[in-house]
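Translate sequence into structure tokens.
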Amino acid sequence: MDSPLQVLTVPTAPYPDQRPGTSGLRKKVYVFQSRRNYLHNFIQSIFSSIDLRDRQGSTMVVGGDGRFFNQAAIEVIVQMAAANGVGRLIIGHHGIMSTPAISCVIRKYKAIGGIILTASHNPGGPDGDFGIKFNTANGGPAKEAVTNKIFQISRTIEKFAICPGLRVDLTTLGKQMFDLENKFKPFTVEIVGSVESYANLLRNIFDFAALKELLSGENHIQIKLDAMHGVVGPYVRRIFCEELGCSANSAINCVPLEDFGGQHPDPNLTYATDLVDSMKAGQHDFGAAFDGDGDRNMILGRHGFFVTPSDSVAVIAANIFCIPYFQQTGVRGFARSMPTSTALDRVAKATKIELYETPTGWKFFGNLMDAGRLSLCGEESFGTGGDHIREKDGLWAVLAWLSILATKRQSVEDILKDHWLKYGRNYFTRYDYEDVDIDAACEMMEDLEIVMAEKSFVKQRFAVGDKIYQVETADNFEYADPVDSAISRNQGLRIIFSDGSRIIYRLSGTGSEGATVQIYIESYEKEQIFQDTQMMLAPLATIALKISQLHERTGRTGPSIIT
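Result follows.
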């Protein structure tokens, strides 16, 4: 018997910048690598935020998207979990597990939480980004009260506990036990297959027999799935190729790489070019791309027909009973983040189902789901999900779409066109101005809010060509949570026009340096539903830039990305 492993208390000094954003703490890799105890401080702050009585002997889940620094970080987390009284860690094989799968595993094993190592759709590799996100017992991102507590602890931290001699083998499935000094029970690490628990969950939601027929039966459709060298590769191979019978060449970029092959693992028209190009050739009926950690998705039809995420959630809502799970549970409510287009609202109204408009961030949806008020939700930033877990879920969204295709036996484009004919069309676009000087961005937002708050702003008219838009309301969005009455303020500046068109301005919180200014532009059309999006929205885009003076204030001539 080896002698028990030593538990050390190591003195440290705090860092002022460990405030978790919408999706945890994201920094450049070199920050974690070069700043002494930077990683240790934040991990200790997470453990210290959990009451010792809850932590003692508890189960936690750990996994990541496989990006550079993932393994090194897991080694430290294991050593610190043991020293902080955690009883058992469940870790994905090779340290890899998608964010939706971690949410599923936290819930399945009734863990007190999980640590997810991802910077989502941000680039990876030694020069890329790294992130640490804490999810709570419901399987969803920690609420603000928890992340604030973690941040406060990180600002005053003086020491951390670690078991430096503890070495875990991430390559071998099964249990590993470790004896620690002054601990009665051994510390257990369980390495689990990354896919199985999650695949099981999906089998109970969708009709896999019908999907298998659609994907590999006699008149099967051709699909193309792009994992963008992120964590979803093994899930796509296991579920789509092995189980649902798709050919091996219908899955591309399925080997997880530490730097995502040098690409941005961001499923949009700008970065998922492999998929977009192969869909344009017209050989495939359905295409989808996933981000680094598997919670985001992009849906394409034949010839690269693009489904906006706002339309995607609306179409799933309108066809929700194509998914067997909802035939059993019924539909409790729909929700979207405030910047997401109001296409979902129209389905909610027609079906008399409650609709919630929340700030950006999946934790707001989780609260509604935990209270039994919400079944389906989505965000314009390529996130869609149901109440089966408490994270957005890329694979789930793809299976939802395929379930609709299997039932309706129509093309993606025809499904969308029928939807617009029935409900009208919400033209929607987002302009991202990345790495803007943070002071310039904040000053612009402050001045814009002052302009919008003036009495004369409401009812003001803006004319571009022959289009006239009149301001109906203008505010800084705030949300009172219907479950716990928590108030979230400053969630984005909104201008709503009398015809229902909207312009929204936000500073984004998921980047790792500089500020990203996002402008969301939306207009609703009942008649002209088959036009080009950018052409239809050009007048509103002109107004959005005029009101904000964005180009003058930031020195930019145009957005970094248009979605």
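Note: Residues 438-453 form the longest helix (16 residues).
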